[in-house]
Write a structure and sequence with these properties.
Distance between the termini: 76 Å
Structural class: mainly alpha
Number of strands: 4
Largest sheet: 2 strands, antiparallel
C-alpha cells in the first residue's frame, strides 16, 4: 500500500456496532450509523484499499443521489467510523449549506392537514395509527420514545423517558391520557407498551412511517409532508404560538440548545411576508 492508504474490512462494522453500544448511543442511532456504513462498503464494491481521494469521491457520489441533509448525515456516520478506527486523517468535511430562516412550505404540515391524517386513519380502521399521531402531536415526543408509553406510566399521569443518556418526564394532556387508557382497555392491553404490533412487538419507526405514507392519497396530502418527525414540529409551533415560552418548549422537546428549539418554531416565508406587509404604515409611499 502507498502512504496514506488503509485497508478496511467488513468485520470492522460489527466492532463499530459494539463500540456504539458501549458508548450508550440510542438503538435508533446505532441502526442508522450501521446502515450508513454498510452503504459506504457497498459503494466500495469490494475494494478494500482506500485513501482520502476515495472518500472525496464517495462524498460526490452521495451528493448526486441524496438530499444534502441525508448526505451530511451519512458523512457524519462515516467520520464516526473513521474516528473509531483512529483514521482521523481520512475524515471528510460535511457539505456546507446556507441556513434558511424559513420552513419550506412544501414540507410544512398544517394543523388542518394533521386533522385530515388522523380522520383518514380512523376512517380506514387504523385506530392505533391515529392514536400514535395524536400522541406525538400532543406531546412533542420523538417517535422512538413511543415505546415508553406503557399502561403503568399512563396511569400515573406522566411518562419517564431515558434516551441518549438523558432523563426527562413527559406530562400528558388529560384528553390524551383518557384516550390511551380507553384504547388499552378496548384492546385488552393490561400492562406494558400501548403501541404494539399484532404479534405483540413494540411498534417501530418504519412501521408507523409506512402506515402514515399509505394515507396520503385518501387524505389528499403531499407525501413529502407525511413523516412522524413533522408531528413533533407541529407540536413545537403550536405550543410556542400559544405560550411564547421558548425555554419551556426546549425542556419539553428534550433539547440541550435553544438554537435547536428555534428551528422547530420557524414559520414559512409566506407568514413573514404577511408580517412585513403589516408594516405598511411606516413605509414611505411612492409618488408619481
Amino acid at each position: 500500500m502507498r502512504r496514506n492508504e488503509v485497508e478496511l474490512r467488513r468485520e470492522q462494522i460489527e466492532e463499530f456496532r459494539q463500540y456504539l453500544y458501549e458508548r450508550e448511543n440510542a438503538r435508533a442511532t446505532i441502526q442508522k450509523y450501521i446502515s450508513d456504513i454498510e452503504t459506504f462498503f457497498n459503494y466500495l464494491a469490494g475494494e478494500a484499499i482506500v485513501d482520502k481521494q476515495k472518500l472525496l469521491d464517495y462524498k460526490e457520489w452521495l451528493l448526486r443521489r441524496y438530499a444534502v441533509s441525508s448526505a451530511n448525515s451519512m458523512l457524519a456516520a462515516l467520520n464516526q467510523f473513521l474516528e473509531f478506527l483512529e483514521l482521523d486523517f481520512l475524515k471528510v468535511k460535511r457539505i456546507k449549506v446556507q441556513k434558511s430562516l424559513f420552513l419550506q412550505e412544501e414540507k410544512e404540515l398544517t394543523r388542518e392537514e394533521y386533522r385530515k391524517l388522523v380522520q383518514t386513519a380512523l376512517a380506514e380502521g387504523k385506530e392505533q395509527l391515529a392514536l400514535c399521531m395524536e400522541t406525538i402531536a400532543s406531546t412533542g415526543i420523538r417517535i422512538s420514545e413511543l415505546e415508553f408509553f406503557t399502561v403503568e406510566s399512563i396511569r400515573r399521569d406522566y411518562i419517564e423517558i431515558v434516551n441518549k443518556g438523558k432523563y426527562r418526564r413527559i406530562f400528558l394532556p388529560k384528553v390524551l391520557r383518557q384516550k390511551l387508557l380507553f384504547f388499552a382497555r378496548k384492546n385488552g392491553i393490561r400492562r406494558g407498551a400501548i403501541f404494539i404490533t399484532r404479534t405483540g412487538k413494540k411498534k417501530c419507526r418504519s412501521n408507523i412511517w409506512r402506515e402514515m405514507k399509505a394515507l396520503k392519497e385518501k387524505a389528499g396530502i403531499n407525501g413529502n409532508k407525511i413523516f412522524p418527525h413533522n408531528l413533533r414540529h407541529l407540536f413545537a409551533r403550536t405550543y410556542y404560538s400559544i405560550t411564547k415560552d421558548l425555554a419551556g418548549l426546549g425542556d419539553l422537546l428534550g433539547h440541550s440548545s435553544l438554537n435547536v428549539t428555534r428551528i422547530y418554531t420557524s414559520n414559512t416565508g409566506k407568514i413573514y411576508q404577511k408580517q412585513l406587509d403589516l408594516l405598511g404604515d411606516i413605509q414611505i409611499k411612492m409618488t408619481t
